TrEMBL record, chain A:
Location(s) in or outside the cell: Cell membrane
Gene Ontology cellular component list: plasma membrane
Protein's recorded name: Spermidine/putrescine transport system permease protein
Membrane topology of this protein: Multi-pass membrane protein
Domain ABC transmembrane type-1: 58-246
Alphabetical list of PANTHER family matching this protein: PUTRESCINE TRANSPORT SYSTEM PERMEASE PROTEIN POTI
Gene3D superfamilies named in the record: MetI-like
Keywords, ordered alphabetically: Cell membrane, Membrane, Transmembrane, Transmembrane helix, Transport
Similarity comment: family membership: Belongs to the binding-protein-dependent transport system permease family. CysTW subfamily.
Organism ancestry: Bacteria, Pseudomonadati, Pseudomonadota, Alphaproteobacteria, Rhodobacterales
TrEMBL record, chain B:
Transmembrane segments: 37-64, 97-118, 130-155, 175-203, 224-246, 284-304
Protein name as annotated: Spermidine/putrescine transport system permease protein
Domain spans labelled ABC transmembrane type-1: 93-301
Broad class of the protein's primary localization: membrane
Keyword Transport found: yes
Keywords, comma-separated and alphabetical: Cell membrane, Membrane, Transmembrane, Transmembrane helix, Transport
InterPro entries (alphabetical): MetI-like, MetI-like_sf
A Pfam cross-reference name: BPD_transp_1
Originating species: Rhodovulum visakhapatnamense
Highest taxon of the lineage: Bacteria
GO biological process: one example: transmembrane transport
Amino acid sequence: MKSLRLYAILYLIFLYAPIALLPIFAFNDGTVIAFPLKGFTLEWFKELLTIPALHAAVLNSLIIAVSSALIATCLGICAARAGTRFAFPGKKGILGLIMLPLVLPEIIVAVSLLVVLLQLGLPLGSWTVVLGHVLMCTPFSIAILNSAFQSLDVSLEEAAIDLGETRWSSFRLITLPLVMPGIISSLLIAFTISLDEFIIAFFLTGTNPTLPVYIWGQLRFPQKIPVIMALGTILVLASVILLAIAEYFRRRGVARTGQADAGGFL
Amino acid sequence: MIASETGSGAIPMIKIKINIKIKAWPRLGRSEASQGYFLVAPPFLYALLLLAAPLAAIVLFSFWTQDYLTLDTTLTLKNYREALSDPLYGELLLRSLVISLAVTAATVLTAFPIAYFISFSVPPSRKSMWIFLITIPFWSSYLMRVFLWKVILGYNGVLNTTLTGLGIIDEPLSFILYNANAVVITLAHAYAPFAILPIYVALEKIDRSLLEASRDLGESRVMTFLRVTLPLAMPGVVAAVLIVFIPTIGDYVTPRLVGGPNGLMIANMIQTQFLKLNNAPMGAALAVLAMAMVTAVSLVFLFLNRRYLKGQK
């Protein structure tokens, strides 16, 4: 077991190696991304504030990510509740189709949507990116919400209905508060996925690039790389904070419904 | 399904419950199935319209042809014939398959010991922390991670300068960037959590008393692992293989950034056909071929592992 622990630690180093480099080069006072390091600077972070195209991309990405997260979570609630609460013929196939984007190569989703949109003569724009992102985020939302709905005791809701609440008010007063941590966790995860997603945005975005599409464009210019490193550092920090919050809510949900903690998002 | 779970005694009870619902809420007292359909309809319609229909469209598209901007909608196998006869496409498809298989093997084989370690060696209270630690890098920007691998693996990269600095190598290693090796390393990193999590879940489900029984009956530690733990973990391994293998074949960013000319994969060609050459039908045909290839390999893999999957689901 000693060697297994050593292996695990080496594996974690492998997992974290790329991310650990981000801040190192973000604060490095040199335009070339290589060792040895030159000196400490905040130059690249300051430069981030002066690029209007970047700010437009960030704003665009935030709008897309919030919309995608909201829609995907709403769809996820429907699917997770239907899947955990009701039995109906063809359930496996229907849920299978909805979960399909989880394993489908993103480029397939992207080009098939692109073909249809172009054939219908619809203009590409932020909304087409949202359409694609909702497709990608919904399976993750369902996976998170499934565990929230699964741990729910059906008799609580039935008791509320027996005591005179309507189906909707019992859902709002009993079910919703109990699965709320799952919903928040799903919103955050969907938001993070949409914010990071590149391929679908690359194919379906119109004239306004999302943040990853903007970064992709910048990677071609070596002199822009240190600024991108600074940007990446901020993005990683933001993701980690969002995830820590999501994990906190997931655990609270687990504690609230009184089950054992199985850990993990997936 | 429900009846078999609840047993014979519970059936009258269910009937009573339904009766009460119908009495209290005549309008809403629909059958369980119709309520399920009603709820699942929005996400299902969404997936039908924006996933199933476009996928069908792309299959149809692959039988059309395009000459610059004019689309010829007569059905023809021309694209497929071209894709299969032109060595460029054939090589790309084959290379994508080989790289995906290598990535899958590397990812799953390195992930298994980690999943095993977390499930068997980490105390239960710390397990979710370990899982969290493993998933964090996965949530940081994919583009940035791939680019950073380029920084690590480059000729003057972090790895080479460190190794030469330590005196382990004299010349920088050149076989680790701008080729298939770099693609495999980078993708193995990107898909690590996707492989670890399903295996971990499968390992967690194993009844520990089975392992004790095996030891008590005289099997060695290694034989117990091979004859009890591994077969029981196979559903997780199969899931991990499919979850890594299927998406990697369509990866675009990694081959483009670290693959060099000999590490390009089919997704790069699909993108070129769609966005640069204006030959969407050819791109569609390549996409369909890539999917067909992935599906065929996955089905064979599932068939080979069918005995481990019996009794699942």
